[in-house]
Specification:
elongated, 39% helix, mainly alpha, 10% strand, 3-stranded parallel sheet, disordered C terminus
Amino acid sequence: MLMARDKHGVGMMVLSITSPGCQGEADQGKSEALAKRANDYMADIVSKNPTRFQGFASVSMHDPTEAAQELTRAVKKLGLKGCMLNDCRPPVNQTTNSIRAIKWT
């Protein structure tokens, strides 16, 4: 893959989980576990060639607080560069369906 990228002048590639990823999992516990495993795996792949690869984190959208915590872990501890949110999610409790801003400190 790197040879083809070099041939076409692609220096950096940002990787992400494929759709639907953890957002397609209806079970909250399974979705959160998948997000953590995917983020750990992504960080491992990136660490093998960080000058050519970076990664986007995955988060389960069942619980906004947990999603923010996992995104914080993925960015601050694992070094991922942002988050990929796929446009699919099982129905959730409307009282917890909210978007929250995160301040990186």
